[in-house]
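Field: sequence (string)
Field: structure_tokens (string)

Example rows 1 and 2, in order.
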Amino acid sequence: MNILIYWLIGYIFANLIFGVATWKLYKNAGKQAWQAYVPFINIWQGLSIIHRPKWWIVLFYIPIVGPIFWLVFFVDLGDSYGKIETKDKIIMVLTLGLYIFAVNYSDNPKYLGPEQRKPTFISSLLFALVLATLVHNWFIQPMIVPTGSMENTIKIGDALFVEKISHGARVPMTPIGIPFSEFIYRDGFIDKTRLPYMRLPGWRALKSNDIVVFNYPTDSVYSAIDRKDAYVKRLVGLPGQTIQVRNGILYVDGKKFIPKKDAQVQHAYMVITKTPFSDKLLYENFGINPIGSDFQKNDYFVQKNEDGNLVYYFKALTDAYVTAMKSNNNVISVEPILDPVGQKTEHIVNGKIDSTNTIFPVNKNWNPDQYGPLYIPKKGDNVEITKESLPQFINILRKYEHNNLRIDSANGKFDVYINDQKTNKYQIKQDYYFMMGDNRNQSLDARFFGYVGEDHIIGRPIMIWANMNGMFEPTAPKKFIWNRFFTSINNDDPNKTSYGIYVLIALIAWIGYDIVKARKEKKKNKY
């Protein structure tokens, strides 16, 4: 609630500053000077002064887009008082609208009315930026997958369209910032203007087996949720369910998890052969890249055993690949590589547990192949906070639901204080989910970072619009996988069809129509 109060105070103050900067311009345009100071009315009357549609007023209040539209407003208001040269527009933009003070307090600012507007580079750029920002923040967000945690369902270098509206678009929590700054300058936002979590109504709840894009919950660099890294994984556990992995096989509520038909779940395998596999066979038949110089990034490594046979350790093979290898006359055996029960996956740095690469919760002797059972909390659950359960819920208590947590463990006690109240119970405030990568043995997922809160959900990928494999896998023989361009995903359909040729035809037709239209206009104006 304090955040909303600060926003209200800031909003009133900003309108007072706006009134001080523009009251004379409003008066000289035939309006009342006081109208420049009153929220909402000042925009409504200002749109009349610059002769812009009144429905534009909505755009001034949309996060991220709003600040851009204020710049458009100030540029147009300057136009109405004779500041029509390109240098005036550039100064107005570079000063974030403060140049309007100079216009307002000049000797006698004369209202000329809006000039005959002609498209300019600056105006076109601003409106393109507004449109792209609207689409990016509220409807469809593009992203490129840099890692192989979802191979081969989603490949390294796949460029995705992520739809946000079916589950409900999340209102940007850092509403004042540079558009697309997550791509160009991660710190390009004003953190003090942070909004509480809000989401517009959607028409579809998240379902088990959905591929989901979300903000990495334990990001140590940014605390603002919408500024954290974006991850893409498969939703395998819903709120209220219990997940478990036994010998690499996932179970949900005691039943074996069946991935969607278009999922290509992969596991690590040891394959013994009589003679070496060729690089061409491995890549073309199994999508496995040749061995490069960086051992950690290799898809496999190979060595000879005491019998003189070759032992391949593949980090990721699908069930179909395993079946194909077993039928190869050169192959002696194919066995899964599994961590044993009781062997904990743990990473220690300078004597301290590195929670990023240590199994969740950190007090369990689990590993990615032998994990759980683990309950996924849902909104309204009353969970017990004990010494044993605290590592499971500590991030929920402190980071995700913003409580003041204090533990008194003196003299063998274990007393829990939540918001200065001694208790051993806590009621969960939002739903949580469990995400895993299809590349089971090469995925940093919820088995390491834990639960993903509802407020971290961005949306669902619906299409691969390009593949830029060469940007991320320089050892791959093919730089781009053309048959992945404009293919649908996340739809339970294993038969993927590329619609790239239809998109290309439509683009050529649109460009041709635009050229013909321009020529007709030119011919018409000539006469």
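Row 2 begins here:
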Amino acid sequence: MTAPTHPAALRDPARPDEVHAHLAGWLAEAVLDPDPDLSAPLRDLGVDSLDLIRAARRIEAAFGVRVQLRQLFAEELTLDQLILLVADQAGRRRAAGGAEPGAAHEPVVLTPSQEQAWEEQTGSRAHWNQALLFTTRPDLDPVAFAQAVRHLVAGHASLRLAIEAPPARRPRQLTAALAPGDPLDGILDVVDVSELADADLPAAVALRCAVEQRSLDPLAGRMVRFVRFDAGPARPGRLLIAVHQLAFDMVSWSILLADLEELYEGVAAGRTDVRCTEGTSYPQWAQALADHARTPETEAESEWWTEVARTPGQIPLDRTPPDPRAANTAATAATRTEEFAPDFTARLLETARAHRCHPGELLLHALGEVLGDWQGERAVRVDVLRHGREEAIGDVDLARTTGWFTTTVPVRLDLAPGTPTERLARTVGHLAALPGGGVGYGALSRHGRPRLAAALRGALPSDVSFDFEGDESDGLPLGTLLPAIAEEPVGEITGPDWVRPHLLEVIATTDDGVLRVEWWYSTALHDQDTVRRLAERHRAALAALCASAT
């Protein structure tokens, strides 16, 4: 995007004290600590990789410079080192990389995450979305908004993807062109609800949102829909943004919303130089991953991943239909949520700091302890969801790229006898030693040499996934254009026959100092009481870890 206007003090050369003030404020928010030790490595303060990805965006918006994610992910990076890094690069504009906005890309392979989902999804491939509904400012300029959407879609290749799936051949993805004069048919629609009374508006919005959830189709190149509900000049309207899962992940929301806000403000102000430019486009990333799979460094990881794949990953079932994975659909999905009081959540954070690990690693280890007892194994395999934006692969810049980067990485949790501290240390050590952040596993299993790929893909898939999503309140960059999340429901984001990727999904979030752990399961495979007992044992395992640190 066109570089923002920066305060004079932050132009080349940047003043380190101004940089310090800005980043120290961000750090205090990220670590939830009123008095953090700013000389300590950011990792030790609980700053995780998603925080750092947000930091890259924040740094560019505030100072007009690009910091490579690989620099931010340095193990011992401190705030002082980050300040010097930003101050040293201030004044240098981020060079616009890749093709012109809106250019088409020739067909390339799917990423490992995309291809695995495509193969496993025997249900609704089309009806599988991410969607959010926002309120819009009452005085929204419809012409400026349409132009901003055009720039946004032109600037982000993942929003223009289409999937090619010829018979008996591997699917590929390509990107359609969007020229300045092309219509936005199928991308942007406006619904006039200005004549509806306030009491009737929510039902009308919810009904249209439910219909729109079934409008996307990756085979037809319909990857994104913007539906604006025009409530008239005196009332806030609504905006539904629905994006197909094959083209988007949670990190992409922050990028998309910040870009849309800046584009609208620029167009509404009459600027003619407004544009939105990615670094590395999503198709370019897909090709970089495929090339990465055939490098000697990645092939050297095969022994590590083969050993992990041998670890048991199957869980007991309460019911055994002929094909458990086919029975594991969205229609049978249920959830149990465990909420932890603020004082318990605070003790978990203190325990993580005492063990020099991330809170998510504590939760994962406790999950491993529960699964080990349930499965009767001394080592268990869990699929861990990671952000997947690894800039150590090739010469890529992913801080502003939208797409489905989230990768599923199998991890081995060693539960051999030992003290609680020793067992936790084995888990933390294994996670720290993951080669290349874990993207090599997917690259090797999908794009590696046939012998290596077959060995990894021949292992039984893990039944359990874990995702630590962090602080829900530290998410979307809402502004004046889209000031809030709307209250109306967005409808079902998957079809009822959509096949869930895991039999048991454990998702942890924090919000206002409260930890919540969701246990998603299928009623076709497990009883409610079974999942309740697992959740209670997980809570007890976390309490034991806290007690071991005192």
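free_text_note (row 2): Residues 284-474+495-548 form a domain with the Chloramphenicol Acetyltransferase fold (CATH 3.30.559.30).
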